Amino acid sequence: MIGWPDASTLFGWIFAITFLGVACWEAWRPSRAAIASLTLRWFGNIALFAMALLMTWLIPLLSSLSAAVIAAQRGWGLFHLVTLPPAITLAASFVLLDFFGYWMHRLLHKIPLLWRLHALHHSDTDLDVTTTIRHHPAEALVQALCDAALVLLFGFPPQAVLLYGGVVLVVQTFHHGNVMLPARLGWLSRWLITPDLHRLHHSMAYAENNSNFGNSVPLWDWLFATLRLAPEGEFKVGLAEFSGAKFQRLDKLLIQPLLVVPNPRPPS
Ligand SMILES: [Zn+2]
Ligand SMILES: [Zn+2]
Hints:
Blueprint: H1 4-28, H2 38-58, H3 64-74, H4 86-110, H5 112-122, H6 137-154, H7 158-175, H8 195-201, H9 206-209, H10 219-223, H11 250-255
The structure holds zinc ion (ZN) (2 copies).
């Protein structure tokens, strides 16, 4: 049987291959022309990712997978208190993790302190595969703590946490891509958060970036009335207060939470 370290490595490879595949797709047929220097943006976004990786390496217990392994060993959490067929536990865990992922994302926009951290993901002036990994280390820390607490509370099995994390990472890498799906695949947006849907979440317009919060499927946005299918007017990516190239330098990215305009911002 495949062990957790092997499975983590496997998902690392799947992510790397998806990342490279989307990067090649963008280079071959980009959906939108770049505004800022690609070198500057990629350096900043990849450096932020390296910091998040370093943090999980230094504090391995911070990962939701570690929390799931501990919960399984000690019998902690709801799913270890009830006996359900493994397939039902796996499916229910998957649905709950996605549901809480949606609401966590809404809170990141709603609570001013959390928005200060999450705004860095939205201040990218272009949207491409590296935006997937553009998160402030402080946001990554808060997210990891919340994920671990949720896993301990519900006792999601390690298989479910690993499978969900892997699937969501692949979907997120795909939907941040600066790519255009062929028209004949338009139906995909009904079942999956596609680049067309997630691009709207990165809109400079307040109403648009407060829509399409889903991680993998548009179900929760549809249920809670935050689904948006098309822009209302001229479409721009990013945040107005950080639209210049100078804000994309790594040092500026790291101090950006101190300069963020509080959210909710008034509709313009
Ligand atoms: Zn967001
Ligand atoms: Zn995004």
